[in-house]
Design a protein that fits this description.
By secondary structure, the chain is an all-alpha fold. The protein has 25 helices and four strands. The strands form two sheets. It has a two-stranded parallel ribbon with strand order 1-2. It has a two-stranded antiparallel ribbon with strand order 3-4. A hairpin with a 2-residue loop joins strand 3 (about 545) and strand 4 (about 550). Helix 1 packs across helix 23 (about 605-615). It is globular and about 75 Å long. The relative contact order is 0.18.
Length: about 675
Amino acid sequence: MGKKEERGIPNAAFVQDDDDISGRGNKGLPAQVQPPHSAIAASSDVFSSAEVNESDEGQQRDTWGNPVEFLMSCISLSVGLGNIWRFPFTAYENGGGAFLIPYLVVLLLIGKPLYFLEMILGQFSSYGSVKVWAVVPIAKGVGYGGALATWFVVTYYCCLMALTVFYFFSSFQTVLPWTVCDPAWATATCYNSGSASNLTGLVNLTGRTSSAEEFFNHNVLQKIINIDDGVGIPEWRLTLCLLFSWIIIALILMKGVASSGKAAYFTAIFPYVVLVTLLIRGVTLEGAVDGILFFITPQWDKILTPQVWYAAVTQCFFSLSVGFGPIIMNASYNGFRHRIYRDATIVSFMDTFTSLLAGVTIFSILGNLAHESGKPIETVVQGGTGLAFISYPEAISKFDVVPQLFAVLFFLMLFTLGVGSAVSLTGCVITVICDAFPDWKRWMVTIVICATGFLLGLVYVTPGGQHVLDVVDFFGGGFIIFVIAVIETIAICWIYGLKNFLRDVEFMLGIRLGIYWKFTWGLFIPLSLVGIFIYSLANFRTFVTDGYVYPASLTGSGWVLAALALLQVPIWAVVSIVKRKGSALDRIKASLTPTENWGPQDMKTRSQWILFKSDDSAEHKSWAWWIPKCIKKIIKIDGHSFKPGHASQSTVAIVQLEVQENGNNNK
């Protein structure tokens, strides 16, 4: 048995924030540790002097009230509407239970590593998604591109929230309005979908449409197929619901993390209460087992098709919200030593668990719908928004016991999920602006952003708004995120350097990450996402709805949105190079070097970081740093490689100093 001093630092996933992670206690600690002046002076060569924002010094950044608020906010961001109406249909369409294999592989090799990487960037620098690129100034456009993609998504995301608000208030009526064919909007082919309707005796339903479907298309959306003459004017009821959604978001964000952190408790926990309630009700219905089996039965012939893996990646990105910027923003409000490793694991698990829970819940109730209507399950399953606003309401309408209650709970849950995600997405945009203009009042920025989002969102509540939504969803928040994520990982791991990044993680968290993180960050993620991006372009298809091909002007507008976001990368790269001095080569080199703004913002912690980098430089300069530890043992090479789970002497000394000082402060 080795001595306690030789055991190193335990895994950060199981260490409390106020624990002594040094493994040595605070016995015999030095009274003061100060980096030598020479170390600080020498470290200045590492940084570029350009783009130093002196206003950052002395500014106190907001922080979460406690670590749980951060975790709840991350869960609210990642667990959203996509888990309810997007994942179940995507899984069913791409192999059922077999889809879980590519989805879990993508989650482990792309989703979770990217999520953890963005958490590290935000917490280490205490910056939002734009200013964080002080680490690699030439890549600053990644932050602006991600912020634009976030803005594109949140404008239509709130439109979906408006639909949930409309259905929520409609659910309080004595007779659920989508259960009967109202002559005001129903067609001659409409049939009632309420519990009193018995369709089992109908031999042929070809050409018939349920009242739930016609209510959604003809009464709520007032949908038109042909938009050659324009998308129409906004529907006044949906406009009010959209306004209500943005008011809620503005109120939550008005005071920054002080208010959004408290709201996250409700937005993160309440949906699970409703989901479990609906699951208990669903599994007790006739036909529920058939629906669940239909959802989980694997279709192994699809697992090797590229489309299934592409669907897994897009679902993972959309659900976890990696690449957009809110994760960096949320982490930037953490304390410097917060154990984000465990948070990344918890959020990844909860996101997958929620998707599976929602899938089982929804398909159990759809199984009952198929049983009651006498139709095959595949005919009652609608894709996209139709699952949430046609199939599920129709299934609820057939409940014998208080269907209004279950409808209210379901749509309140959807709205809550939407608020949780929209708050973080909108907050990311607000943080970018407030970081760029620190003198601006946050509440004023919040009001302007939310008002602008409402005005832009009016296009989605027009009769032709769903066509616009489809295009913005694909171009504004779809494949461009793959490009953003690729550049992000290349900038961090290949330009700033994977060794430097891992050492920053070691200093901040007190652990050394192993080969899994080196492989995913440094190799697998960049190469795999490049391949996925090429596949998405090669398989680009024309937008078609009910045989109607979207006009070229609308599709062209989508390409403009994508170009607007992606062009931020080269534009800001040129700006970064031009702002520096010297020859062209010197300017390029300087733009590839971190500015003095990169690093811990607390001056004392920053001094410790400089000392750490100076003391450990010799340990990490070995030519064999890249060789895995197991191979070095076999061929007897001393590469001074990282030892996962252990920290260097300087790290332990710094952690011990902080433990001692915290103890003195408590006294």
